[in-house]
Design a protein that fits this description.
The protein is an alpha/beta fold. It contains 14 helices and nine strands.
């Protein structure tokens, strides 16, 4: 653990002296997102540096106290093990790829215990999986990285994540990972010390703006496609939200009161492909996510993505990705 870690710097923000030090523990799971972890811890370091006070102390924990490999293969050393750590403050779980494989019963049990004792707990990127396995998310708002939301829903069908940058719901803090961890921790700093210090930390991070909690993690379809055509955006949203259902172009035309030809023309003009190909690609991307992040059978993945059969899904998957779904799932690596 960093002891009296107050770096020297030129910029300064005045605070009343003798502020109470807050301990934040980062529990790193294998294959974690290094970007999410560093985006969270650096605002704490900068807050200390700007004020010349130890506002925050932090420690890096792994389950066994050994170094852990990030998803980019960089190793990060631990200060201590989960069993030996001082867990008197907040605990933030940092995860990354294949989160369902790295959350042990021991980790989940410790988080559940801390929650019941009144501690603040959180998840960065896919650290939310650990909170879900601990059984503490029911009835609370939360989020995780957008790419992992579909497989999360499959694994925890009774839980519904929000598509937001970060969420603070009482003592549960979650974020989508990446630079949204900076937005979350700027909010933590602002809530405790005010906007002046938070804004100074933001400037030191060269973070152009402190994004609000409710902002979506990804660009809107309108911005992505460069169009505000209401009918097209409605159809795209319907496809994304109902891809497991079997529906035809005629069904879409009737539902949105627009002709088949108009739908085809809108897709070719603004999306650059046919409606059928767009929907197939959408379903294949969803299938690839589920194969990468869950242990669902290929037949179940095919059904949940709207394919008529596992064979049809397998043929399309191989054509697009050059490998069969079964081989992709069994040979996936971090």
């Amino acid at each position: 653990m960093a002891e009296n870690f107050v770096p020297h710097g030129v910029a300064h923000v005045e605070l009343p002296p003798d502020q109470k030090t807050e301990l934040i523990s980062f529990l790193l799971l294998p294959k974690l997102s290094m970007l999410a972890f560093t985006s969270a811890i650096e605002p704490l370091r900068i807050a200390n540096q700007l004020t010349g006070q130890e506002l925050y102390r932090w420690q890096v924990i792994t389950e066994d106290g050994e170094a852990v490999a990030c998803s980019n293969k960089v190793m990060i050393g631990a200060d201590t093990s989960l069993a030996d750590a001082d867990l008197s403050g907040s605990v933030m779980v940092c995860a990354g790829i294949q989160p369902e494989t790295v959350v042990s019963d021991r980790v989940a049990g410790q988080l559940r215990k801390l929650w019941r004792m009144g501690h603040r707990v959180g998840g960065l990127c896919t650290g939310t999986y650990a909170l879900a396995k601990a059984g503490i998310l029911k009835g609370h708002d939360f989020t995780l990285h957008w790419e992992n939301i579909p497989p999360f829903r499959q694994t925890f069908p009774d839980l519904e994540p929000l598509d937001q940058l970060y969420v603070i719901d009482e003592r549960i803090l979650t974020c989508g990972g990446g630079s949204s961890a900076t937005d979350l921790f700027l909010r933590i700093i602002s809530d405790r010390f005010g906007s002046v210090l938070a804004h100074a930390v933001l400037n030191m991070c060269l973070h152009s703006v402190h994004r609000s909690e409710e902002e979506a993690q990804t660009s809107s379809r309108a911005a992505l496609l460069g169009t505000r055509n209401r009918k097209l955006l409605q159809i795209l949203r319907f496809m994304e939200e109902n891809m497991e259902e079997l529906f035809s172009l005629d069904d879409l035309a009737r539902k949105f009161q627009i002709s088949r030809r108009q739908i085809e023309r809108l897709f070719l003009t603004h999306v650059g492909t046919t409606p059928k190909q767009y929907l197939t690609d959408l379903r294949l991307r969803r299938g690839r996510m589920l194969l990468a992040e869950t242990d669902l059978r290929v037949s179940d993945v095919a059904t949940s993505c709207g394919f008529e059969s596992a064979n049809h899904f397998s043929r399309r998957f191989r054509d697009k990705y050059g490998v069969s779904p079964h081989r992709f799932q069994t040979t996936r690596t971090g």
